[in-house]
Amino acid sequence: MSKLRIALLQIAAAGDLQATLNKGRAACREAKALGADIALFPEMFSIGYDIYERPADQWVKEAIAPEDDFVQSFGRLAAELEMAVGITFLEKTDAAPRNTLILFERSGREVLRYSKVHTCDFSAEAALSHGEGFSVCDLDTAAGKVCVGAMICFDREFPESARLLMLKGAEVILAPNACPMEINRLSALRTRAYENMLAVATCNYPDTVPDCNGHSTVFDGVAWLRDEPGVRDMCILEADGSEGIFTADLDLDMLRKYRSSEVMGNNYRRPETYSELAARKS
Predict the structure, then answer these.
(1) Is the entire prediction scored with pTM above 0.85?
(2) Considering only CA atoms, which of 159, 152, 154, 99 is closest in space to residue 130?
């Protein structure tokens, strides 16, 4: 049986970049001790998503380049621990900064870089520039190759995010987050997993962080099994509100068998009828 252990690092940033780096590295080591194959941080961990308490002209100055030691330290740590690490940060660009995730595989190699496409332009995130698209990677793990994609927080509210990742082959979506995870947002995550037959792993900040409440989740994407009556609860992990490291074991064999024989995902789509979805809003 092929199991992928995902660790959600539901922890707050530590107030400055070096202290946050130290805390993040310690959390990764703890995740490895718990047997994790992937460790995922919440959204924009480099500054703790601290964008509502301060003017934008202050926090945008804290953007860092992907080559910054804060980011690259997690690549080196991924190689040391032989564990994939998904680190999030406010990325410095030639234009406005971006809300970015970099995934390092267990060799320490960067295999995925994703910037939030659906920025919350109705609030503080109007100071950000948005990402240009969705991509996937084949992540090397102890459980074998796994096709992984990413979306960040508000991306969840747009079915197109997960749909595009599914069409590109994603089996697992990593979803850093920073907001209250209540019944409606949790339902959206469940739906993204259900309609695309893929796993969605969401890492939120704990309830000690303003406007966050923990409840990081993993939905495994398997809604039913043919040899079992009724339906399954796809939620294999829902954390409480506390700061901590929470792990879930994703059964890849079960997910792949389900994807090969069931009706969701790409099997009965009618893309020739969807052209209006791609039209620009007026």
Answers:
(1) yes
(2) 99
